[in-house]
């Protein structure tokens, strides 16, 4: 099972690429991004505490996913690092803007 979080989307896509045996990971475009949302430093501590209490299971799941993905990346070692470096380089140099989709290439 593989799951990702938005803060480390590139890492997730590289793990997905390696798991599925794709030559390149899927490309993506950020859509429906809320640019007017409140930043965490704009929210008072009491509100943060209420949010955390009401989302305790979500927070636990988030932490678990982050921990598991780090563990998987560490187990893959250089294979993960080289794949991530290549993916990041390609995205930066080409400024790729596509929706998430499975690559057409097979193994």
Structure notes:
This protein is mainly alpha-helical. 56% of the residues lie in helices and 0% in strands. The chain contains four helices and no strands. It has helices at residues 9-20, 45-54, 56-76, 78-94. Helix 1 crosses helix 4 (78-94). The longest helix is centred in the middle third of the chain and has 21 residues, at 56-76. The two termini are 20 Å apart. The model has no long low-confidence stretch (mean pLDDT 83).
Order of helices and strands: HHHH
Question: Can you count the beta strands?
Answer: 0
Question: What portion of the residues fall into strands of 2 or more residues?
Answer: under 5%
Envelope shape: globular
Q: Report the major sheet.
A: none
Rg for CA atoms: 17 Å
> Helical stretch count?
4
The pLDDT mean sits at 83
Distance between the termini: 20 Å
How helix-rich are the residues, as a percent range? Answer: 55-70%
Q: What structural class is derived from the secondary structure elements?
A: mainly alpha
Low-confidence region ranges: none
Compact overview of the structure:
With 107 residues, the chain is mainly alpha-helical. It contains four helices and no strands. 56% of the residues lie in helices and 0% in strands.
């Amino acid at each position: 099972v593989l799951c990702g979080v938005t803060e480390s989307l590139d890492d997730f896509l590289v793990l997905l690429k390696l798991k599925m045996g794709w030559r390149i990971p899927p490309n993506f475009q950020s859509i429906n991004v809320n640019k007017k949302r409140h930043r965490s430093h704009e929210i008072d501590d009491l509100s943060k505490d209420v949010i955390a209490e009401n989302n305790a299971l979500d927070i636990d799941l988030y932490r678990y996913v982050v921990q598991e993905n780090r563990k998987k990346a560490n187990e893959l070692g250089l294979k993960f690092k080289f794949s991530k470096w290549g993916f990041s380089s390609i995205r930066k140099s080409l400024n790729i803007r596509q929706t998430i989709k499975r690559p057409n290439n097979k193994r």
